[in-house]
Amino acid sequence: MLKIDTDKIINHIKRHRYIYIIIAILTFLNVNIFSDLISDWMRDDNYSHGFFIIPIAVYLFYRQRDEISFPAKTDKLGIFVLLAGTIGLIFGTAASEYFTTRLGLVMMFTGITMYYLGRENFKKVWFPFFFLLFMIPIPAIIYYAATLPMQLFASKVSVFLLKFIGVPAVRNGNIIILPEYSLEVAEACSGLRSLVTLLALGSLYAFLQLPGRVLPIILFIATVPIAVVTNIFRVFITAVGAYAISIEVAEGFLHEFSGMIVFLTALIIMLIFGSILKWIRRRFTSSSV
Fold first, then answer.
1. DSSP letter, residue 95
2. 138 with 47: CB under 8 angstroms?
3. Count of CB atoms situated within 10 Å of the CB of 131
4. Which sequence spans correspond to the domains of the chain?
5. Distance CA 106, CA 124 (A)
6. Which element (helix H / strand E) includes 103?
7. Which of 96, 162, 166, 229 has the most C-beta neighbours closer than 10 Å?
8. Would you give the end-to-end CA distance of the chain in angstroms?
9. Residues near 205 by Cβ (< 8 Å), separated by ≥ 6?
10. pTM of the prediction?
11. What 3-state DSSP class applies to 263?
12. What is the per-residue pLDDT across 211-242, written as a single tens digit (0 to 9) for each?
């Protein structure tokens, strides 16, 4: 049975009561921002993973609590981060620019924590604050600017692959024209939807499983081509299904389940790539000893 040391918890809260009060007040004053965020997570499938970001970030911070030591010298850099976040929140709210507002709020929490914990302590717990960024939907202007090129790229490569295996196909913009069927590479099929979630998962996996600084960055960057390639595979398989089997299969089973299958495939590839990076690291370390 799990035993909770209430005395220890009470002493901890008393010792750090001021920082908890400040965070509670900041949260209460900006509850409308969190409410809008939750609405976006519920409405937009691209960011349904947002519900898990804060609990995971809190857990990651909690699991490193023993690495934090007090007393600690405050970090004045945290004040500048707090001020920058405050400015972003104010101007973002005034301009109804949600991304700037939400980013500013995350920066405010980060700046307060950075100042209170001190630089050396914050170096040990920086990742949970970085991870919070994945709960913020990217600006619509950036989203739509990236979507069309990804749609066109997916359709171009898919047509090339179709022709390579002998399937007659031509492309008209983001539409793949097959005999008796036209397949549109829609916005949802651009790959951006899975990319955002995979970036969050990739950063989390890299932080928890990969040693050093270089390997996590490599895996994080590799998440982008992995998401793009697997999405192209989805479009390609759908087109092959429509041509070789039936239109009903392409618009039914493949349309409904290919997204989930492709996401899981991308996740598996990412995990395999991470394992390869760890294996290379072990071989390199053992050979240099």
1. T
2. no
3. 19
4. 6-136, 141-288
5. 18
6. helix 98-117
7. 162
8. 45
9. 219, 270, 271, 274
10. 0.84
11. helix
12. 888 889 999 999 989 888 888 888 888 888 88
